[in-house]
């Protein structure tokens, strides 16, 4: 079984925030983690703003299996409800569905993404 990790959760693995330790403790149980390659783009840009080294970024990202969204994933993202969800967040939710029957749910701390995931029938986890 696999958990889809969005950028809001991943960043807590590289930058200490109040939820960082609970998330790291949860990750210590060695869950299978997957994400879109979109995570790398978002995380690199955020890490530059947060002054997190690329070494720390790439060390943390090694625990995540990256998926490449295909055209059907983008098409599904256009249909994700609610329509007020930001496009890149919709792409994360749509990519999570690409995991298929192995998907346990989404790990996120983004409230809009969590709401969209629930509306679309996914389990949401936010260790804190």
Task: Walk me through the structure.
This protein has a five-stranded parallel β-sheet. The protein is of the alpha/beta class and 128 residues long. It is built from seven helices and five strands, in the order E-H-H-E-H-H-E-H-H-E-H-E. It has one domain (2-125): 5'-nuclease (Rossmann fold). The chain is 50% helix and 16% strand. Strand 4 (103-107), helix 7 (111-119) and strand 5 form a beta-alpha-beta unit. The radius of gyration is 14 Å and the shape is globular. The longest helix has 13 residues, at 38-50.
What's the total count of β strands? 5
Give the overall average pLDDT: 96
* SSE string, helices as H and strands as E: EHHEHHEHHEHE
The assigned CATH architecture is 3-Layer(aba) Sandwich
Structure class: alpha/beta
Low-pLDDT sequence parts: none
* Portion of residues within helices: 40-55%
Strand content: 15-25%
Describe the sheet with the most strands: 5 strands, parallel
Shape: globular
Radius of gyration: 14 Å
How far apart, in Å, are the first and last alpha carbons? 21 Å
CATH H-level superfamily title: 5'-nuclease
Q: Which strands sit side by side, in order, in the main sheet?
A: 3-2-1-4-5
What is the CATH level 1 assignment? Alpha Beta
Number of domains: 1
Query: How many helices in DSSP terms?
Result: 7
CATH fold naming: Rossmann fold
Essential attributes:
128 residues, alpha/beta, Rossmann fold, five-stranded parallel β-sheet, 7 helices
